[in-house]
Amino acid sequence: MKPSKDIIEYMDRFQVEKALITTTNRRARPTAHLKLADSESKELNEAQKLEKMLEFRKSLAMGGQLDHQDIIDIAKKAPERFYKVFWFNPKIRPEEEDTDYKILEDHFKKGFCGVKIHSGIHSIKIPKDVIKLVSFMQEYDRDFIFYIHSTPKTPFFSGISTRDMAKLAKQLPNLRIIVGHAGFCMEYAIDVGISLKQYKNIFFETSCSVSFAILSLIRTVGHKRLLFGSDAPITSPIQIEIDKILTLPISKEEKQDILYTNTENLLEKIK
Questions:
Q1: Are 77 and 4 spatial neighbours (Cβ–Cβ below 8 Å)?
Q2: Which of residues 50 and 108 earns the better pLDDT score?
Q3: pTM, whole model, 2 decimals?
Q4: Superfamily of segment(s) 85-267
Q5: On the chain, which terminus has fewer CB atoms closer than 10 Å, C or N?
């Protein structure tokens, strides 16, 4: 994560007024596994490389919570511009549960207003693994948001299905759910749009998505439920993400809603 001054300058450069912000799992950054592969590639055969990659994947899912002091420090520089989101690992051993939920509560008291989970890294089963988490959130504040880093199942990530997310939305109709990276490929966006259209408490975030997949979501769920996201500066350059919206064949009003108004409306209830 860049120093707080750099983050704010980065936002100003691209006229980003406000942002949801969370920390990053530094072991999961794209360069981490590439360096692992490069350092050993000359000595290992393909099967051994795959085994090493799987070992690396398992190491990402280790228990415990990430340190969010970087987010606290950044937000202190311009508190009116940031909504702090805690990246929580709900796959907790019973003996660690009280400690981990106390950590989460302490961050709520420090102004965090939502929770992010990573369905792939932590092999989360939805809704089973998150019922306690979202119930805890709603008991603290019913307006908190719940961000799911969504990904389909692959050999390296367990992922979740749209059916799983639909179950959660139906079971907790007052929980405001954001499906992250909702259009990262065309087929996934079609599945997401058709399967989750009826659940009005689900919103769809655009970062790392394919332009035509974003357009598909607009046509299935309507532009009012799309939230601009950048995943910047860690993953994607923000200008690319902005251009994806600006170049869509939709009206200026619809672009304004996606880039600003929809998120503003979603967050206006948060204290």
A1: yes
A2: 108
A3: 0.87
A4: Metal-dependent hydrolases (3.20.20.140)
A5: C
